[in-house]
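Re: weekly structure request thread

Next one in the queue (318 aa):
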Amino acid sequence: MTDLDQLRRLSDEPMYNAKAVKMQTGVTAATLRSWERRYGILVPKRTPGGHRLYSPRDVAAIEWLKQHIEQGMRISHASTMLQRELYVGAPAAPIETRPTARSLEAIRDDLYQALIDYDDATADEILSEAYSLHPIEAVCVEVIEAVLVHLGHDWAAGRITVAAEHFASNYLRSKLIALIDPGPVTRPGTIAVGCAPTDIHEMGVLLLSIFLRRRGWHVVYLGQAVPLHDLAAALSQIKPDVLVLASTVIESAQELIGVQAVLDRVGAADRPVFGFGGPAYNNQPELREQTPGVFLGETLHTGIDKIEQLMANRKPSN
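Done, posted below.
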């Protein structure tokens, strides 16, 4: 293992970009930015365009850090040693002492890079930082949802592989589902939320479920492509006050035109108020008149307000 005395003798001339550093060390650009941001180490020079350039000494220091972490040393301790012995005089900037919070845009960019690098450990750190600095609702919409949209565009344009898109999307989906936590329910009643039949685009219903849950409602998340053929039996067990199904594509919205026949099979005492919404109804407003139930509005926040009105007006339980 290279020691710190050997590192001091290496050139500090900037010459390697983050991609070259990853090829040499296996450490991703997102991890390097995290180390720089949290512990004030490495301090790479910048090109006129703002891109980081690392010296041979930096590359060896990165490898030194990686080896010590793999042997069980905490990154905070290893970075302190490196800062004290190698980067003497370099400005340390631990995250705890920074006067201002990083913007959601910067966090979003770092998260995107970590995910297309298949670096879930760094992605975990970035999201933990985001949750500590910003409201969860803002992180969900301006970071997680925005990264998902970015992934979709880059996949369609051929800038990332299918494997990278699937890895990143599944990672983010798992993080959103985890936010529908079993914390204390502070408001009476139950809301069932899911996607319309054949519709697998669940971002909107996931965010809806999270935001309702954080407002204290009991939410039963039904997931993607909820089939109508066994929905009546499920509703009889769940007994929701309000059922919400969302459609992203026209075909799934058209299937909801027949939802009344399903609701009619539920006993009157257990029959929920049905609400619907989603991009399909925004793109083809005529579907709103054809679908039985309550249209929840064109945005997530108007949908939440409408659902809360429906809950406030529900029949009192016996």
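Residues 115 and 168 are 5 Å apart (CA to CA). The domain at 190-312 is CATH 3.40.50.280 (Rossmann fold).
Next request, please.
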